[in-house]
Amino acid sequence: MAVFKPFRAIRPSADHVKAVASRPYDVLNSNEARQEAEGNDLSFLHVVKPEIDLPVDTDPYSDAVYDKGKVNFQDLMSRGILNQDPDSSFYIYRLTMDGRSQTGLVGCCFFEEYFDGIIKKHELTRPVKENDRVRHVECLNANAEPVFFSYRGKSSINDFVRHKTRETPEYNFIADDQIKHELWPISNTEDTKFITDAFKEVPYLYVADGHHRTAAAARIGKKRKEENLNHTGKEEYNYFLTVLFPDDELKIFDYNRLVKDLNGLSPSDFLTKLEDSFIVSQYREGDPQPTMIREFSLYLEGQWYRLLAKDGCWDENDPVGDLDVTILSEQVLTPLLNIVDLRKDNRIDFVGGIRGLSELKKRVDSGEMVAAFALYPVTMEQLLTIADAGEIMPPKTTWFEPKLRSGLFVHDLE
């Protein structure tokens, strides 16, 4: 049973929403965020990437950064750019990219369900990033950005959402990246009760994107519970901001790998060694994008190669061992290139498929990297199966698009 409750969102008015709404904190580095927010003092990047308003050499994990984010958030509130809704509501949020839409429900989930296993994860978190989100939330005393969850879709919820989205949305804008965003507040008591009750029939929620924010929210809820001698379980800090999407509306993009060297091997020797595990052929023409599982593309010395994994390179009985990212690690990265820890080794980098194979080619041709591997994306069913089995995916396996825009709704922990 999933707990899902309405809340009084802090959000911009429709006439300010496009200026306020920003890309999330973790898809831009500090310099990119500075450029994107330049000339726009309403951008929510001033709240979620507040180092952009401090000297360039500022440590992004310093107290000054979190304090600046709080000042910027309070400034948007005091100026009336952000205001809190008078009634507890859910919100229907639809994103449309390249003609494909995904529609989710915005509300709050219960932190205890992260520890109880009702909220399922598929990735490990890094302490430094988790601590960063804890400090950001505690300084603001609010969830500034939602977590992106999924669930196995239910026809009753789908029908409700379909009916409500026939009405005129309160927000309807196209961001600079050409993604369309629409929002419908749902405050009617009968409707909010329907949503709450419907999710009581949903057995599990799945973290799609935002493992660090989820872990941070759970830590904060646990800490405040332990510190409050009069804790009842109804306090607002027990809940954190989420958007829930049915699994069949989501698309996972490929998450590709770049390596800085071949571990002392010449390109020809490397290709020869690949033949132990793959059928290797050159692309003479056509698109080198992998079109099925077990198929990889390698860019090396100005040439694309097709790598088709041979039988025995994967374990069909292990949902993680069956993944293409695992095949690449176990057959190439670890034994040939001595890249063992994907989280810590600085000889490897990762590029979301949304950037296309041209990004891989550019970085190899520039000399920054020596080779690139393009993969076929994992499916939502693979993700759910791994989470249900209590397993963890290798790092940098899933890339979801479109990304949730930040600044459209904030959850006040008080």
Q: What structural category characterises the helix and strand content?
A: alpha+beta
Average pLDDT, to the nearest integer? 96
The geometry reads as globular
Give the low-pLDDT segments: none
**Helical percentage:** 25-40%
Q: How far apart are the first and last residues' alpha carbons, in Å?
A: 25 Å
Per DSSP E runs of 2 or more residues, the count of β-strands stands at: 21
Beta-strand share of residues? 15-25%
Radius of gyration: 22 Å
- Biggest sheet details: 9 strands, mixed
What count of helical segments does DSSP give? 13
Describe it.
This protein is α+β, with helices and mostly antiparallel strands and 414 residues long. Helices cover 30% and strands 24% of the residues. It has helices spanning 17-20, 30-37, 45-48, 63-78, 112-116, 127-140, 155-164, 189-199, 211-227, 267-274, 324-333, 357-365, 380-388, and strands at 4-5, 10-12, 82-84, 90-97, 100-110, 119-120, 142-143, 147-151, 171-174, 180-186, 205-209, 239-246, 252-253, 255-259, 278-282, 295-300, 303-309, 348-352, 371-374, 399-400, 411-412. The strands form five sheets. Strands 1, 4, 5, 6, 8, 9, 10, 11 and 12 form a nine-stranded mixed beta sheet that branches. It has a six-stranded antiparallel beta sheet with strand order 15-17-16-19-14-18, with helices on both faces. A two-stranded antiparallel sheet has the order 2-3. The longest helix is centred in the middle third of the chain and has 17 residues, at 211-227. The radius of gyration is 22 Å and the shape is globular. The mean pLDDT is 96.
